[in-house]
Amino acid sequence: MLHVDILKANSLKATPQRLCILDVLKNHGHATLEDIERFTKVQFPTLSLSTIYRNIDEMLKKEILTEIKLVNKKEYYEIKKENHTHMVCENCGKIEDFIIDTDEIIKKYQTSTCSKIHKITISFNSTCKECL
Question: Would you call 50 helix, strand, or coil by DSSP?
Fold first, then answer.
């Protein structure tokens, strides 16, 4: 699905700034607010950080983007995808998506605690193949 279609399907205007933010995340996978600002400034030199943040916040509320919270790191953003975990290289900081089946973990926890899990966030500290 095109970025324009994703925005329209979520009742957001497909502004050049939003499309640029989505392009940055598509091309880089995971990015901090500062990364997004740096890459969007190439195309929109006068775009303010508050405008970027406001657009990211709107897309987070519409669940177009996901905020990734990693221990001892800044928040990262990515375009929402299927459930996955993150492999974070301790040497270079690269973040890679990694798919694992969390259904059994969720079932076990919900059964033993009589609770409902709404979101699961797992990250692994690792050394990527380039740094090995």
Answer: helix
> Shortest CA distance to 21 belongs to which of 69, 67, 53, 68?
53
- Residue written as tokens 């957001």? 12
Say what the pTM is.
0.84
Burial 11-34 (b: 16+ CB within 10 A, else e): ebeeeebbbbbbebbeeeebbeee
| Torsion of the alpha carbons at 76, 38, 20 and 32, rounded to the nearest 10 | 0
Mean of pLDDT over the chain: 91
One-letter amino acid identity for 104? E
Write down all domains in the chain, each with its CATH number in brackets: 3-79 (1.10.10.10), 85-126 (3.30.1490.190)
Residue 57 pLDDT > 90, yes or no?
yes
Query: CA angle, 88 as apex, 85 and 89 as ends, to 5°?
Result: 150
> Is the distance from CB of 52 to CB of 33 less than 8 angstroms?
yes
Question: DSSP alpha helices (H): ranges in the chain?
Answer: 3-9, 16-28, 33-43, 49-61, 103-113
